[in-house]
Design brief:
There is one protein chain. The protein has 2 domains: 176 residues, Alpha-Beta Complex (Aspartate Aminotransferase, domain 1); 265 residues, 3-Layer(aba) Sandwich (Aspartate Aminotransferase, domain 2), CATH 3.40.640. 39% of the residues lie in helices and 17% in strands. The protein has a 7-stranded mixed sheet, with helices on both faces. Strands 11, 12, 13, 15 and 16 form a 5-stranded antiparallel sheet that branches. Helix 4 crosses helix 11 and helix 7 packs parallel to helix 8. The longest helix is centred in the C-terminal third of the chain and has 23 residues. The relative contact order is 0.14.
Length: 451
């Protein structure tokens, strides 16, 4: 794992990228993507030989790190045996992946519909809910992210939705609990929970319960800020869904497969949805794969009635073989337990200690390998370090913080006024402490912008 500098090769990679690759969520002429030469475990490196500890897990999906040899071998073996096959057939890798996932999902979510990623998993979950109920509307939270496809981005509750929101997607947004910036004037977690549930039920009442097909929530919101909900909130949403005949969808694309120290974040709250979407950590992102875990009642809807949806690569053998290997690695190597243990004994305490030292840290929140630091200009007023959806000069404080982290060998996950601590779930304690020390140094730069 010793990076070998090769700047000429890096320049060629960068030039080809700039000439031909169209990057997502970006103004193409304003970006400067890093040319990556290699990756292994919790690290990656560039063509100049600089190595970075990845506290972003790619896009929060390399749950078992880069280039795990058992997963690489499984992909190679599957490619030698059967590289691809159409989704209408029973294929060993597909069947085994579905069985292993169903064993770990909560309740009776025993049928698995495979997709290519998280966004199309959300698309199909919503289609299933609408067909199952015969209703048109879907309720989704502000401060959420559900994907970049048309329905998924309209469900999303952050600015990435705005350019695609024509107001015709049948989506109604509501406020989920977030005590640090409460929309309900709550002073305690219990108040926040009760008032958020009252707000949701009022929204259902005024929209018309008979028009609402589904409520979709990230079990723990990811990109939006890792706001762990109050203990009784999701159970309360489950009760509202049961009361009004609404399908409850949990989006576990980011929070699933060990990220929270449980196989699924739903297990932290002892709640079972009707549909659960997954992707990312299911195979550590080695080959694109996502899916919907489906309850018995919804599966029965399509027992004799065709489900009007599918994908050419649904349950792709290479992706499913990677999932089988990933789940095996996680079980054999105690990856879920590692995330839980180090989250409780190292990450949580260390981040809270950082908050004591750095005036830029307004709040620390998270669980497992899923944490966020909310950065502020003023702890008393809670003014964010940068404005909502800041860009350009307005975003300079966060850009300076991120640059300092990278200079210190840490690759951060930064969104708006937050930095997230989301390393691989199998990271070692020594690697964690290395990254947290680099984070400590970078926060000194953020402190320069505080009041």
């Amino acid at each position: 794992m010793t990076p070998q500098p090769n700047p000429e090769a890096g320049a060629a990679v960068k030039a080809a990228d700039r000439d031909h690759v169209f990057h997502s969520w970006s103004a193409q002429e304003l970006i400067d993507p890093l040319a990556v030469a290699g990756a292994e475990g919790s690290y990656f490196w560039d063509y100049d030989g600089r190595r970075y500890l990845d506290f972003s897990s790619g896009l929060v999906y390399t749950n078992v790190g880069y280039q795990h040899p058992k997963i690489v071998a499984a992909i190679q073996e599957q490619a030698a045996r059967m590289t691809t096959f159409a989704p209408a057939f029973a294929v060993e890798a597909r069947s085994e992946a579905a069985r292993l996932i169903a064993e770990r999902t909560p309740g009776d979510l025993d049928k698995i519909f495979f997709t290519n990623g998280g966004a199309d998993a959300v698309e199909h979950a919503i289609r299933m809910a609408r067909l199952h109920t015969g209703r048109p509307k879907v309720l989704s939270a502000y401060r959420s992210y559900h994907g970049g496809t048309q329905q998924a981005v309209n469900l999303t509750g952050d600015p990435r939705r705005w350019a695609s929101d024509s107001g015709t997607a049948g989506v109604v947004h509501f406020w989920a609990p977030y005590l640090y910036r409460s929309r309900f004037y709550a002073e305690t977690e219990e108040q926040e929970c009760a008032r958020a549930l009252e707000h949701l039920e009022t929204t259902i009442a005024f929209e018309g319960p008979s028009t609402v097909a589904a409520i979709i929530l990230e079990t723990i919101p990811g990109t939006a800020g890792i706001m762990v909900p109050p203990p009784d909130y999701l159970a309360g949403v489950r009760e509202l869904c049961d009361k009004y005949g609404i399908v409850f969808v949990l989006d576990e694309v980011m929070a699933g497969f060990g990220r929270t120290g449980e196989w699924f974040a739903a297990d932290l709250f002892d709640v079972t949805p009707d549909l659960l979407t997954f992707a990312k950590g299911v195979n550590s992102g080695y080959v694109p794969l996502g899916g919907v875990a489906i309850s018995g009642a919804i599966a029965e809807t399509f027992g004799k009635r065709p489900y009007p949806g599918g994908l050419t690569y649904s349950g792709h053998p290479l992706a499913c073989a990677a999932a089988v290997a990933t789940i095996g690695v996680m079980a054999e190597e105690g990856v879920v337990e590692n995330a839980a243990r180090l989250g409780e004994s190292v990450v949580g305490p260390e981040l809270r200690a950082l908050a004591e030292r750095h005036p830029s840290v307004g709040e620390v929140r998270g669980v497992g390998m899923f944490w966020a630091l909310e950065l502020v200009r003023d702890r008393q007023t809670r003014e964010p370090l940068v404005p909502y959806n800041a860009a350009g000069e307005a975003n300079a404080p966060m850009a300076a913080f991120a640059a300092a982290a990278k200079k210190g060998g840490l690759w951060p996950f930064v969104n708006m006024n937050r930095t997230h601590v989301v390393p691989p779930c199998n990271i070692s304690e020594a690697e964690l402490k290395e990254g947290l020390a680099a984070l400590d140094a970078a926060l000194s730069v953020a402190d320069e912008y505080t009041a």
